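#lab-general

N.A. 3:47 PM
ok so I finally got the sequence cleaned up, no stray characters, all 151 residues accounted for. can someone with queue access submit it? mine expired

B.Y. 3:52 PM
send it over

N.A. 3:53 PM
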Amino acid sequence: MIELGSPCPWDVLPPGIHDTTLAEVEIRFATTPHRKWLFGGLVRVTEVLAKAGCRYVYLDGSFVTAKPHPGDYDGCWDHVGVDIDALDPVLLDFSNKRAAQKAKYLGEMFIAGMPNGPDGPFVDFFQVEKSSGKPKGILRIPLAPPKGATP
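B.Y. 4:20 PM
back already:
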């Protein structure tokens, strides 16, 4: 089970990358009707990413904190092995503050290794709590390979 704890505005995950499953995320974080709605968007995006060959997503944002009513979820996905031609083009559309992603999947997903300015790649950027600048954790969720694929 994932425990929260922090001096930040909301409890956050302890520093590090924490391996978990979608089922565990649902149990721990999809605890209200609104959070269940956001979780449904997360499940849809992970299904699309898995079909394109993505092996891992990293989950961050207020969804994985103790914030009572998170606005969305944030995350990034591991590009290794991903067939870009099989990927939903919405996941490569970062325009208008990722409005298309938010509309379709209820959250924002970046490429894990994509630079986020001077803060390094998104997978590192997401491990810093934005109000305090202190380290915090993110979740790594393995995705099932598409049916018929060999691992």
